[in-house]
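Fold these two proteins, one after the other.
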Amino acid sequence: MKFVITFSILSLGLLVVAQQGETIHCGGRLPACPLDYKCVPDSPKCNDTRSCAGHCEFIRKYSDCGGNRIIPKNCPSGSRCSPDPRIPFTDSNMPGICIPNNQPQCAGFIGLSCPKGLTCYDVPEDGCDPKNGGADCIGVCL
């Protein structure tokens, strides 16, 4: 039980660090990366992060966009700029990600599931909050 609580606290801490744009270290005896991240070796000579240091990167990468910049980046045709739903507590002043318009949807009234390898996230800017009575909110698979 003590291990589970400690692991949960560490995982929450890693998500806060990720949200702030800081590097999350992994490999060796360090904790595993959070959900939707992979551990990438810091050295090109290492191919097994169980024996060397690394850092966590998102498994699936999306182009960045928007944000409070002098010249905000636009998304390519066929995608929209959205706050990154994979990172908690993001707002419209932070750079977002380009989400393809044809990205699979999930959850909602009929409980759609994501294809294998993708995770369902709430769409932050749709005005529907699943934690505040919005049980029918549609999510996006990333």
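Now the second one:
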Amino acid sequence: MRFPELKYYICLTLINLFCLFEADLNFLNKIMPLSQVKEKLKNSKDASSLSLRMSLEINDESFEAVEQILYELPKSKGWLNAPCILYTIKKVKEAFLAQKIDAKALDKLIYAYIYFLDNFEKEDRWFSRLYNVNLIQGLVEILHLYYYLPEWIKKDLIEATIRVYGLCPEFWRLYKLNNLKISELEISFNRFNNIANFWEKDSSEEQDTYYLNLYLDLIFFKRYNNVDVYQILREILIYILSNKSLKMEIKKLYLSLLDNYEDLVGILSHPLIDEETYNELISTYHSKLPGEILKLYPVPKSSYQEGLLELGKRILNEEFDYAVKLADSLLYSTSFSLEDSLIAVDFLNYYAITTKNELLLERVLSKLITMLEGISAQNPLLLSILYRIFNSENLNSKNLDAYLIMIEDMVKEKLGGEYLDLIEFTKNNPHPFLKDNYFSDTLVVVYSCQKNLSTRIKTIKETWLKDLEKYKIPYIICVGGSEKLELKDNVLYLPVPDEYEFLPQKSLALYEWVFYNTQFMYVYKIDDDSLLNAEWFFSILSYRKHNYYGRIVKRNIGGTDRSWHQQKSKNILYRTKIDKSYEPSVYAEGSTGYSLSRIAIDKLIKIRKSEIGQIIE
């Protein structure tokens, strides 16, 4: 890279930093004339270049150029330098108060900023672009000029504020922090508080009156086309529809706020909705629900998928006689791959050891020996099978000794001593799983935080966690914010912060606890705002074949939204710090839940302890 090019890129890096700390951009002229930087940026139309150039234009008091860029930005692609946007708006405000810009030019810039906020593309970056704290503060800065504006602009500015940020907690926090008191917004603020306090409402208030007032608050924001009203409405609807003491007329009144009746299908599938409400609403809205949603068309499955699903159902319901016959037929089927047949071996191995059926176990071990040569060392089913074999107290028969010696020798030769060391290490851990239940080697972990223990966790304990108890599948609730590591009443308290920005530390602490303190072969992680269909998930058996089982997110260069975490974070550093992850990237998508095998957890811990792992952490 030539020296002038290097100076150019150094300037680009520093512009955003200078804007963040409101430093004098003219200092950068010592590196390279900013007029040259601005000219080069004019050749680029990506969001990063446009937002950087906008700060240089305002530095030169080129107000028309700033206005033009604000109209171009919403449709642009790539990373948005939000501190440059806020810097520009603050400079516009300063220029107006110093009478360097007239009212007409200010009006144009305000409308350009409203357009900018209103017209983000509905893409992956839309949410965090719109809720970036710098962009919110930008609107707050404009509201400081409210009483200088003509009436028609005041009206449009108020409408835009309610439409874009009327249900955004961060906006109202900054509104109060800046001591803004705009009478036209105070009504919106009060309505926002009514909705925000829904979860903590005074139970002594007359119920029908309260819900009618809340309905009017939602109607208010809906009329302004607020971007968040439907998301909040769906959350509130779950609680309203599950309230057995609330009149059906009020429930239907809230449902009338839905414009898309497809949303009703998702709401009615929630486990809290009682049967009486469900039947009444289906009867009422049957004609409005799309036919393709009412009809569940079966998806064609292969004989392999059907066979495994049937096997999983029989195992889950402890119909073992049928399950053994089915697994036997799958074991010797020529239509299944070697690794797929290993599921049948895994179950038959469990069943033979549990019931002390030596003849069956002899057949299973014999089959395993023929399969070992072609099985990958990373196959989690193999570890599950070998762990049960080498950790069983039921294998005392001399008839089985030869098989066990042969298997141990083949494992050492093919997989190495580390594999057996992992088995031996795991055997010595506390918290063994129940040997008499096939699925008890899988631990379900519900990610939560201490403040949700009396709310969300209480709800799921009354709903889908009961299914886990029914099928004898172990689970724990994982929270942070504890002074010491402690497992109490199925709640694992971790000595890590409980805030959103520390989720990576919470995950690492969890998996280290599992690895060093339990004997589980699999861990399924799910958030406390999600629903696990335990019967379906465990019946299909697929998770047992994979070290990682879940969704995978792929981000190409420029595809990472580097401010997504800001709105969710509590720490001031993380509310302004950008995500510096490498691109392109591939990572686990945690929102829908995923499972890790013990092999994967072992790898994770080793990488964390490695030199590169310590650098990343």
